[in-house]
């Protein structure tokens, strides 16, 4: 697992907010003491702007931080200023998704629900290329290929020395729709089935006949090994990503995920369904899932 500048920047921002509040200072009072605009403090604490070490030390002086805290946060600031491995894909990487890739790089657990597409971490190259061509409009061929390569590079987290723990609930439509054609889809299903045999990857299929459930769309919950960084819920649309971090928000999505896991096919049955469909033994796609 790599050190992610994104995660370090967010931990640093959270710590600075906590120190300011412990010092019983408002953002306006802090800015006045430093001869800055209040918006600069706000942007730093909201993680919309990085912080230089010199500015950090000035803030820590105002907050009367002890030497251990100063050393810890200075190291965080230096780590946060580095470029992540994904920086080389900047031309094809939307800024709102760059944050997600940075979070994923250091997460130790991911729980995800996908309604009608295979989760990116489980996709084959051929499936990823077909999906990207269908969903990303008005992009150059070069950028499309970069997006595919980025998706494949993200999958390295599944093969780290300390691999990511992934639990995916996947809608039945995702394993029925022949993205890229039947050959590509057969290869994709075989790939998921192989990954699902690993102890750190769990896949459950949510059949259509399972009926109603509380999820209103796809979502991902990222968990982190550092106690300083809370869980993050990620929601994505065609025009951007949305991040939820408030405890009541992440708790809500955790409950929804628990409900989905309880109502989906169990992992063993899901693996059987994947293998059956991949082997071509399933009946026509219009037949309800067994």
From TrEMBL:
Gene3D superfamilies for the chain: lambda repressor-like DNA-binding domains (1.10.260.40)
Pfam families named in the record: DUF5753, HTH_31
Superkingdom classification of source: Bacteria
Span of domain HTH cro/C1-type: 16-70
Annotated InterPro entries: Cro/C1-type_HTH, DUF5753, Lambda_DNA-bd_dom_sf
UniProt cross-references to SUPFAM superfamilies, sorted A to Z: lambda repressor-like DNA-binding domains (SSF47413)
GO molecular function, one term: DNA binding
Protein name stated in the entry: Helix-turn-helix domain-containing protein
